[in-house]
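Issue 218. Parser rejects a valid record. Input:
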Amino acid sequence: MMREFTGKHMAGVMVAGFGIVVAVNFYMASLATNGFGGVVVENSYVASQKYNGWLAEAERQEATGWQLDASRTADGLVVVETQNAPETATLTAIARHPLGHKTTRTLAFTRQDDGRFVADQPLDAGRWTLRMTLSDGDRKRVVEAPLP
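Output the parser choked on:
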């Protein structure tokens, strides 16, 4: 024997359906606002006009063959290991929080005997993005990477 489908049943189906849609929208919005670590430009048109120049500069930097790998010690010091970099190279970095935070820090590094670079001051805990610049005369390599 079948039960009659009433207006109350239909209202329940509608509330449940829209409830699922609203819950998914709130979840996706929270992921978008809390997890985006991108960079926002002031003027997207001007940025698009400079894009080919940025690509050419990136190719020049890639041609150096220098590799940088950053990590953080337990006491907050940033350590950068390099590969194929000349011994006379110097390193600087700017640490910034991902989008939504205004804090930025400029880091100075000291080269160790083993070739690694160690920051002069510790970096606070949390998510950071490093923009590292390894320079030797007129050659340089800029690498932007998240810091775990």
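Fixed in the parser; the record now loads. Strands lie at 67-72, 78-83, 90-96, 104-111, 117-119, 128-136, 139-147.
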